[in-house]
Design brief:
The complex is a heterodimer of chains A (150) and B (119).
Chain A: H1 3-10, H2 47-100, H3 105-120, H4 123-129, H5 132-147
Chain B: H1 3-15, H2 21-30, H3 36-49, H4 52-60, H5 71-82, H6 88-98, H7 103-118
Helix pairs in contact in B: 1-3, 2-3, 3-4, 3-5, 4-6, 6-7
The chains are: A mainly alpha (150), B mainly alpha (119).
């Protein structure tokens, strides 16, 4: 490579902007005055503007979420407080009712009868309290009940 | 307690009774019952007892236990046999069943014995 060509490459002049900054969509020349600059502004924001806009958006999102968070927290706390109050009221009502309720004796009898029936048909009790001939009778009775669809 | 639960407990009480006559009652009434559920409960109770007499009923007799004509009853009995901890007596009864004259009983015993070898 010759030095001349290298220097010309390094110290190459910047290309002159030869584009016109206005457009002529009709492709014809006008007589008279013409607007020499484009009426449309460039919409591409510059880098600095882009960064600042993005920063503003992030900050506003954070502030918005903080507001929402604090209002959500206070709503939740309020609902917890009101729930606690309701529980307390219900507990008081239940306690009063329990104190004033008398359990009827028939109900207790029914429970005792049911429990003893369950006990009577437990495997251990069946085996201990019945000889084989008695168990045979009990078995036949219950098979007949099953076949009858009871 | 519903009737089915009571039946299950009665059958179990007979199978685990100290008097061996309970097994005879189960063979006479339980294994001959027309109701599938009663036969299934009886077969399982007899297998759980795990004695020679109780296992002979469910393994060697045609139409009972593993030879029941109802597939679900037979499968339930086979399952119970496979779940036994001590399978010694059961294997012995299965070998005896293989020497029986009835072909279907022989085949079933052979198959169950093979299954037990793998379990």
């Amino acid at each position: 490579m010759e030095i001349k060509s290298i220097s010309s490459k390094i110290f190459r002049a910047a290309p002159r902007a030869t584009e016109q900054n206005h457009t002529n969509p009709f492709g014809v020349s006008f007589k008279g005055n013409m607007v020499t600059a484009d009426v449309f502004k460039s919409t591409t924001p510059k880098l600095a503007e882009k960064v600042s806009n993005k920063g503003r958006m992030v900050v506003s999102a954070i502030v918005g979420s903080m507001n929402d968070f604090s209002s959500a927290m206070s709503a939740r706390l309020n609902s917890v407080v009101s729930f606690g109050r309701r529980i307390k009221e219900n507990a008081t009502i239940l306690w009063d009712k329990a104190n004033n309720t008398k359990i009827p004796l028939n109900f207790m009898d029914a429970i005792i009868t049911k429990m003893s029936e369950m006990n009577r048909y437990g495997v251990e009790n069946l085996r201990k309290n019945n000889a084989v001939p008695e168990l045979e009778g009990i078995l036949s009775t219950h098979i007949n009940l099953l076949m009858a669809g009871v | 307690m519903n009737n089915e639960k009571k039946l299950s407990n009665i059958i179990e009480a007979l199978a685990s009774h100290e008097d061996d006559k309970g097994i005879e009652v189960l063979e006479r009434i339980g294994t001959n019952c027309p109701n599938d559920e009663v036969r299934r409960l009886t077969a399982r109770a007899l297998i759980k007892r795990n004695t020679r007499d109780s296992l002979a009923i469910v393994i060697c007799e045609n139409g009972k236990g593993i030879n029941d004509l109802n597939t679900s009853v037979a499968m339930s009995a086979i399952n119970e046999l496979l779940s036994l901890e001590d399978k010694e007596e059961a294997l012995r009864m299965l070998s005896e069943a293989e020497e029986t004259s009835l072909e279907s009983v022989k085949d079933t015993a052979r198959s169950v014995k093979a299954l037990m070898a793998f379990s």
